[in-house]
Specification:
Blueprint lengths: L2 H36 L6 H32 L2 H19 L5 H4 L2 H29 L7 H26 L4 H8 L1 H19 L5 H9 L6 H8 L1 H32 L4 H29 L1 H24 L3 H28 L7 H16 L2 H12 L5 H18 L20
InterPro entries: MFS, MFS_dom, MFS_sugar_transport-like, MFS_trans_sf, Sugar_transporter_CS
Subcellular location: Cell membrane
Membrane topology: Multi-pass membrane protein
């Protein structure tokens, strides 16, 4: 394949993923700063924050359903068409959030409308990740699959970076202007990014792996049934491996925004700056970690990152407790910028290598989205509840990160390395 086409494929997987996660993280950050005051109004600020985080978590539980719907389309009709649908759905929901009336204007309808759009977002992201990943991985040469699979993973942090930059600019406004209209602008302008993403994907052909499945006449009628019947072990492995990638991530990037500002007294700007610096570093490191996995294997890299995550849990919170902006930045950079990078870089490629092409979209999506629902969206909620229950002690939250690491270590031992094997050679006879 010519370099120009390959470049377009990688950009398409990266841009789409970036846009989806820009929309998604925008909600997560605004949930901590705005929604608890304008949509989930309560006399007790902690209850308002918990309700706001609950709305953040809610979409994670709808993501597996979006994953089932769109991965069915992806395994039956193709990766490309599915990606256009998921991006369009996500874009409409995010744009709509920027136009919503507040609780003060329409009462209970405000949180109802917000939650509805949040669920639509969840459906879109449920199918987007698997398609973006497979677009890159199924085109990749075997010896570069780690690198190619890491590219769409960069979209997670690039999207987050875009969201953080947008909100950082908005927080330069006065408090009144930010709370009235400033927070809305990033949601509304996200429509421009969506149009760009759809244009990039227009010239992409279907992946070689899906073409081979279609030519062989082995397209499954019900991919979800076949996946759960013959590949349930692989799904469980993927769910378990996802835990350490997602729970600490949302603690380092979302929970820390409210914790550092409300509990420790850091400014909103300092906290968002720390997250932004760490995000830039992890974005740079992810492709290098992908390349490293092509040399030493996904499993070794993942295990190293997971052990590092467990060891850093208590030092991370201790550094925050010193109430130094410099230590806040260093702690966030080590956790989110360095330790998390190898874990997320190899995750998608590792998932794709344990599922057969016939049900690969469904398999990786189920594992990823169920893991995200169980451990990702709930992480800020669990961490806030633990703080509230244990008198603002960080010990239970640090223990929670260690627990997430142990769950993933247990899951990852079952993974067999397939780093140098062609994806089309991983066909599993169980489904025949």
């Amino acid at each position: 394949m010519e370099k120009k086409q390959m470049r377009r494929i990688l950009i398409a997987s990266l841009v789409g993923s970036s846009i989806e996660w820009f929309d998604y993280f925008l909600y997560g950050t605004v949930a901590a700063l705005v929604f608890n005051q304008l949509f989930f109004v309560n006399e007790d600020p902690t209850i308002g924050l918990l309700l706001s985080y609950a709305s953040f978590a809610l979409a994670f539980f709808i993501r597996p359903f979006g994953g089932v719907i769109f991965s069915h389309i992806g395994d039956r009709i193709g990766r490309k068409k599915t990606l256009v649908l998921t991006l369009s759905l996500m874009g409409v929901a995010t744009f709509g959030m920027g136009l919503l009336p507040t609780y003060q204007a329409v009462g209970i309808w405000a949180p109802i409308l917000l939650i509805t759009l949040r669920l639509v977002q969840g459906l879109g992201i449920g199918g987007e990740w698997g398609g973006a990943l497979l677009l890159a991985v199924e085109y990749a040469p075997a010896e570069k699959r780690g690198l190619f699979g890491a590219i769409p993973q960069m979209g997670v942090t690039i999207g987050m970076l875009l969201g953080t930059i947008a909100l950082s600019i908005m927080t330069l406004l006065t408090e009144s202007a930010f709370m009235t209209w400033g927070w809305r602008l990033p949601f509304i302008f996200s429509a421009l990014l969506v149009f760009f993403g759809l244009w990039i994907r227009k010239g992409i052909d279907e992946t070689p792996s899906f073409k081979k499945v279609k030519e062989s006449g082995e397209v499954p009628k019900l991919p979800i049934v076949e996946t759960l019947k013959y590949y349930w072990r692989e799904v469980l492995i993927a769910v378990g491996a996802k835990v350490v990638e997602t729970a600490p991530f949302y603690i380092f990037s979302t929970f820390v925004v409210s914790y550092a500002t409300s509990t420790l007294g850091f400014s909103r700007t300092a906290t968002l700056t720390a997250v932004m610096i760490a995000t830039i570093i992890t974005t740079i490191l992810i492709p290098f970690m992908g390349m490293l996995s092509d040399k030493i294997g996904r499993k070794k890299l993942f295990i190293g990152g997971t052990i590092g995550m467990a060891l850093f849990a208590f030092p991370y919170f201790w550094m925050l407790q010193q109430k130094s902006v410099l230590l806040l930045i260093i702690a966030t950079v080590i956790g989110l910028g360095v330790i998390w990078a190898p874990i997320t870089a190899v995750l998608g490629t590792m998932f794709s290598e344990i599922f057969d092409a016939r049900i690969r979209y469904t398999g990786i999506t189920l594992g990823y989205q169920i893991g995200a629902a169980l451990a990702g969206g709930t992480a800020p909620l669990v961490a806030t509840a633990l703080l509230n229950r244990f008198n603002n002690s960080y010990v239970p939250v640090a223990a929670y990160i260690i627990f997430a690491s142990l769950v993933s270590l247990a899951a990852i031992w079952a993974v067999k390395e397939r780093s140098n094997q062609k994806l089309d050679e991983t066909h599993n006879s169980r489904a025949m």
